[in-house]
Structures are given as structure tokens and as C-alpha cells.
Amino acid sequence: MPELPEVETVRRGLAPVMEGALVNRLELNRADLRFPLPEAFAEKVSGRRIVSLGRRAKYLLIELEDDLTLISHLGMSGSFRIEETVQGDFHHARSKDSKHDHVIFHVEHDGKHQKVIYNDPRRFGFMHLWKRSELDLYPAFAELGPEPTGNALDADYLARRLSGKSQPLKGALLDQTVIAGLGNIYVCEALWRSHLSPKRQSGTLVTPGGRPKKELTRLTEEIRAVIVDAIAAGGSSLRDHIQTDGSLGYFQHSFSVYDREGEACRMPGCGGTVTRITQSGRSTFYCPTCQK
DNA sequence: ACTTGACCCTGACAGC
DNA sequence: TGCTGTCAGGGTCAAG
Questions:
Q1: Which residues of A participate in catalysis according to the annotation?
Q2: Which H helix or E strand runs over A284?
């Protein structure tokens, strides 16, 4: 589920509870997610204070005291929720998938005790501990591309990265070393907003001289805009959602093309039909009429 | 060097 | 009701 905007929304939802909090106890209900949990994980985190919450691409960064960063990736099905710690809640009704509550942070903040629960049915998520001062050496970060909303992403950069590539745009934009944080949904959405076909060969957006064509400049703008919009939507959904059940990360978005196979294209005046194709094993949704 | 495909795992859903 | 097949928002690795 979580692409960059969702992870950012999770970060913002967790911040009031976790930033500045003391982790009294880290409860582990299994030894591994996608990878083994860190060596002596509970011992290393318990008793430490959380300095701040950060994010890099789709990675949530829980910054602990003593130069330690807990790196959390939510995979496809990871989510966090916040629960009050109620005295005598031994008989509290457990939600139906609590069997996938793998890691529980028992935190204390201003005398208030709460649980931050990581749930992940498919266990494609993972957690690592890394020295904050050496975070750039974390293998997944070493090759990571720029953030889509950061200054490092511009049309000139993309022209350098896409020049000469025969790879279809869909695959190039999913490549985390090109842009960090885009996933299947927002690549589809950005291409639709740019009127560009996901099958278009990446190098054709660059002039022979290596300059970005106008459509690449447009694409760059739309990538930024679709992420900014989604983060804003996540922020508004947080306010409604967090108070009801404490869950973060599964708010409902509405997309323009993603998961709309067979529906009328929403581009004004287009009149086409959204089509689903498979590219490198994953679904792509686009409108063949207005995306060229 | 680049690109694709199989794989990790569980749950939801459609069709029989 | 239950079975089976298909699909899912991610990343990694091997093989083409």
C-alpha cells in the first residue's frame, strides 16, 4: 500500500505520540518480518527516547537517542495504529487481524501511556537499526534518487537519467534510483496528468542534445504536483480517521486512472476509456486516447 | 549495462 | 459453504 504520501501521512500521524516519547518497552511477537528483526532489537530500543520522526522516500525513520535510527519500511501491507493503554484491558476485544500485530512500541509521553502497533499481514515490511551518522551508507539509501518534492528533482536531472533509455516510462519512474518514493499508483497518476503513455520509451522525452523536451518538463511538474496533492489529502484524512480507531495509512484516496479499468477517462474532453495493461508483471492503468 | 520475471507472504474477491 | 484461481500500493535477486 504505502507509497511516499502514505508514509508521510503515517509519519505525521505518529509524530504527536512518538516524538519526545520514551519507549518503555518494545514488544516483539515474532522474530522476523521480511528479514530477521535486528539483533537484540527490544533491548536496544527499550529505555530509549525518540528524538524525532523522519522519512526518506518510502522509509519511516524513527530517530532514537544515541545516534541510532530505526528504519521502518511498510512493504505492501504494513500499517501503524495507536491505542490507549488502558489499565485492566486484559479482556479487551482484539481486532480480527491482531495476529499480525508484530511489533508494539509501549511509549510514554508527558505521563501518558500509549501503544504504537505495527501490523503487517504479508510481512513484506522490515525494520533495521542503523547509526544515524552513517545513514547514507544504509544499502537502500546509497543508490536512492531524489525526493519528488525536493529541489534536486528537475527536468534537467530527469533528462540526464532518461537520456538514451529504451525502457518504458512506467518502469523508469518506478525505479527508486531515478526518483525515490513513487509507486505503482502515483506513476500511473503522474503519467495520466502529463498525457504521456506508460509505454513511451523514456529516451524520447530528451532532445538529441540531452535537453528535456517540453513534455518532460510537464511530467516533472506533474510528478511533484501529484505527490503534493496526495500528501495534502492524507493530512485531511488524518484528522477524520485517527480519532476513530487509531489506524494510520489505510485512508481512502480517489484516483483518476488507477484501478479504473473500463471507466470513462476523466480528462476533460477526452472521451476515451481507461485500459489496464501489464508491464513488468504489474498492472498499469492509462487512457490510450489522451496519453501518447 | 539494461531489462524482465520469479519470488517473498497473506488476504480479499470472483466464479464455480 | 467451500474450493480454486487471481490479484494486490514493494523490493531483491537471478537470468536473459
A1: 2-3, 58, 282
A2: strand A282-286
Burial profile A29-44: b = 16 or more Cβ within 10 angstroms, e = fewer? eeeebeeebbeebeeb
Does residue A262 reach within 7 angstroms of strand B, measured from its CB?
Answer: no
Domain extent listing, chain A: 4-142, 155-286
User: Is nucleic acid strand B under 7 Å from A97's C-beta?
Assistant: yes
CA distance A220 to A216: 6
Superfamily of domain A4-142 in the CATH hierarchy: MutM-like, N-terminal (3.20.190.10)
Domains A4-142 and A155-286 fall in the same CATH topology: no
Nucleotide closest in space to A75 (CA vs C1'): C10
CA of A209 to C1' of B11 (A): 50
- One digit per residue, the tens of pLDDT, for chain A of length 292 reads 689 999 999 999 999 999 999 999 999 999 999 999 999 999 999 999 999 999 999 999 999 999 999 999 999 999 999 998 876 555 444 455 789 999 999 999 999 999 999 999 999 999 999 999 999 999 999 889 999 999 999 999 999 999 999 999 999 999 999 999 999 999 999 999 999 999 999 999 999 999 999 999 999 999 999 999 999 988 777 776 665 567 776 566 789 999 999 999 999 999 999 999 999 889 999 999 999 9
